[in-house]
Amino acid sequence: MTRETPPKNWPQAEFGRRVTLAPHRWWLVERGPKDAPVVLLLHGTGASGHSFRRLADGLQARFRVIIPDLPGQGFSASRAFHAMTLDAMAEDLWRLMDHIGAAPVAVIGHSAGAAIALRLAEMRPLQVVGINAALGSFDGLAAVLFPAIARTLAAAPFAARMASGLWGRPATVARLLAGTGSPLDAEGRGQYLTLVQDPGHVAGTLAMMAGWQLAPLLSRLPALRVPVWLIASAQDRAVPPKVSEDAAALIPGCRYTLLPQGGHLPQEEAQDGLAALILPHLPMAAFAPV
Questions:
Q1: Res. 81 pLDDT band, cuts 50 70 90
Q2: What pTM was estimated for this model as a whole?
Q3: Cα 181 from Cα 259, distance rounded (Å)
Q4: Where are the domains of the chain?
Q5: pLDDT > 90: percent of the chain
Q6: How many CB atoms lie within 10 A of CB 71?
Q7: What mean pLDDT comes out for the span 19-38?
């Protein structure tokens, strides 16, 4: 079971609230003026909205910034672990936006969150900014094996608790983060340790991995007619820059930027969360499809 509320010292906890909208009990952070244009921020697999704390600091003066923890991850509880597919999560996010009266003009997604952002943009027009977008597919046997392993673990009793106990150690978390090219500081490592030590969060992560199917979305990228900007990091060891470069070549009019520094989590490594880079290019109003 995912924790009901974040620890008191959790980033942005003072801006968070619980929104119950079956089958999920969302943990939602909101920053900025209520009447400002809305920007939605979506974290990647295994993370939480805390990943955008620095970026939110830089955006909240001009935008209403909405940062949900994805279903079953972070502090968002769910009763639908069997249906955490790309399509289902996108549909549930739009239902959440309608429920709280928010109409995003842009969505910024990190890693797998960028794939969800693109799916959202297929459903309703909005600008997409992807940071180290996880838009690659596994090759060969891995395409079958990895999702199968995730499904097996997600369905096995006590598997999440066992995995949490195995991975939820400071040295293990530090090694995993270093392996992405973003070792983070002690505070950042401690935040991921908190997440990994929560069996509910691990179960939600496994469920998302088990239901993850990118092929249909990738096949439709050439038909996308909204502004898309893909940002990649040169030192990203989790999602190599070529993944974003190849995806950008498929999307009409897509902008591509390669950051010379930073690993998989540049929004956590940069002191401003990449706000200075991204802020000038965000729309201040909704637009029609291009």
A1: confident
A2: 0.93
A3: 13
A4: 13-139+215-281
A5: 73
A6: 27
A7: 96
What CATH number belongs to 13-139+215-281? 3.40.50.1820
* In the block, residue with structure tokens 């499904």: 151
Question: Which token pair is 12?
Answer: 């942005």
* Phi, psi of 158, rounded to the nearest 5 degrees: 70, 5
**Cα distances (angstroms) measured from residue 52 to each of 29, 36, 48, 64:** 10, 19, 9, 14
Spatial distance between the Cα atoms of 166 and 197, rounded to a whole number of angstroms? 9
User: Cβ distance 237 to 132 under 8 Å?
Assistant: no
Q: HEC states along the chain?
A: CCCCCCCCCCCCHHHEEEEEECCEEEEEEEECCCCCCEEEEECCCCCCHHHHHHHHHHHCCCCEEEEECCCCCCCCEECCHHHCCHHHHHHHHHHHHHHHCCCEEEEEEECHHHHHHHHHHHHCCCEEEEECCCCCCCCCHHHHHHHHHHHHHHHCCCHHHHHHHHHCCHHHHHHHHHCCCCCCCHHHHHHHHHHHCCHHHHHHHHHHHHCCCCHHHHHHHHHCCCCEEEEEECCCCCCCHHHHHHHHHHCCCCEEEEECCCCCCHHHHCCCCCHHHHHHHCCCCCCCCC
Give the pLDDT confidence of 160-208 residue by residue, as tens digits.
Answer: 676 677 667 899 899 989 999 999 999 999 999 999 899 888 888 888 8
What's the token pair of residue 17?
């609230």
